Amino acid sequence: MVNFRRVFVAGHNGMVGSAIVRQLQNQGYQDIITRSSQELDLRDSAKVAAFFSDLQIDEVYLAAAKVGGIQANETYPAEFIYDNLMIESNVIHQACIHGVKKLLFLGSSCIYPKLAEQPMRENELLNGYLEPTNEPYAIAKIAGIKLCESYNRQYGVDFRSVMPTNLYGPGDNYHPENSHVVPALIRRIHEAKQAGLAEVVIWGTGSAKREFLHVDDMAKACIFVMNLDKDIYQLNTQPMLSHINIGTGLDCTILELAEIIAKIIDFKGKIKVDPTKPDGTPRKLMNVGRLRDLGWKAQIDLESGLTDTYQWFREHQQKLRGM
C-alpha cells in the first residue's frame, strides 16, 4: 500500500536508521527524507530549525545518536552526553514548533538501573543507580524520554519513545575500539580464524547476560508503534511512563554469545575470558509484555540473525578493513 506521509529518518546512515528506511520502503512509504551528518549537524540548533522550517515533515524517527560499547563510553563520556542531549533536544523541540504530527524517539535499555529487577519493566526507570560505565549516555537517553513526555503534556503533541534492547545486524559498526559486543566478537573471531590463532580472549568473566534483537525486527517494531492509534498507545502507557520496551524477552551470557559466533564462523580455537576487565551490568533482559499485548513480537532467532549478520560482514569486509 502506497503511503505519502513525509517521514524524516534522523540517523539513516546508522544501523538502526538504515533498517527503518528499508522497512518504510518495504511498506510503501514514498516520501522519506534523510540527511547525513555532513549535510545536517543535528547538534546545531539553527540548522535544525532551518531544516524543519523548509520541509513540511509529518513524522520523525529519531534514530540519530552517538553510540558505542563499554570502551568508547569510558573514553568519551563528555561526547556521549553532550552530543546526544543536543541531537534529541534540537530535533524534538523543532518538531514541536513546526507541527510534526508524530515523533518516535529511540532510547536504549541502559536507561534502567544497574540492579533493576529482571526482566526489566518500563516502571524500573529512575528506580536506582545506573551502570557507571555508560551513565552519561543513559542520562541523555532518559532526558529524551522526558523531553517527549514534557512536550506531550505541555503542547498536546504525539511524541513516543521506544527502548530497544541490544541490537545487531547489517550496517553495524565494526571499529576495533568503538564497537558493541556482537560486531566486536564477529570481527575478532573472524580475524583469529584467518590468522590461525588458538584462542580468542573476551572481556570480563563471560557471565554477564544480555538480550539481543536483530535490527530488522527493531525497525518493524518501531513502525508498528508509530502507527498505533493514539488512544491504543496511550492506554498501554501511563502519563509519566510513556516509553515501550522492544526486545525478544530472551537472553544469553556473553560467553554463550561468543561460542555461537565461533560456531557460525567455524573457529576451532578456544574462547577464554579476562576477569580483570569489566562485565558491565550483570544482566539486562527486557520485559516485553506491554509490546506483546499490543500485538507485536520478534521473529528472528539469535543464531539465524547472527548468521545473517556474519554474511553481511563478509560481503563488506574490504570496506570495513580500514576501520
TrEMBL record:
Involved pathway(s): Nucleotide-sugar biosynthesis; GDP-L-fucose biosynthesis via de novo pathway; GDP-L-fucose from GDP-alpha-D-mannose: step 2/2
Enzyme Commission numbers on file: 1.1.1.271
The protein, known as: GDP-L-fucose synthase
Reactions performed catalytically: GDP-beta-L-fucose + NADP(+) = GDP-4-dehydro-alpha-D-rhamnose + NADPH + H(+)
Organism: Vibrio mangrovi
Active site: 137
Binding-site residues for NADP(+), renumbered to this chain: 11-17, 106-109, 141, 164-167, 180
Signal peptide: none
Single Gene Ontology BP annotation: 'de novo' GDP-L-fucose biosynthetic process
Biological role: Catalyzes the two-step NADP-dependent conversion of GDP-4-dehydro-6-deoxy-D-mannose to GDP-fucose, involving an epimerase and a reductase reaction.
Binding site for substrate: 188, 203, 210, 279
Assigned protein family: Belongs to the NAD(P)-dependent epimerase/dehydratase family. Fucose synthase subfamily.
Enzyme class: oxidoreductase
PANTHER family cross-referenced by the UniProt entry: GDP-L-FUCOSE SYNTHASE
GO molecular function: GDP-L-fucose synthase activity; isomerase activity; NADP+ binding
CDD domains found in the cross-reference section: GDP_FS_SDR_e
Sorted UniProt keywords: Isomerase, Multifunctional enzyme, NADP, Oxidoreductase
Sequence ranges assigned to domain NAD-dependent epimerase/dehydratase in this UniProt record: 7-229
Site positions for Important for catalytic activity: 108, 110
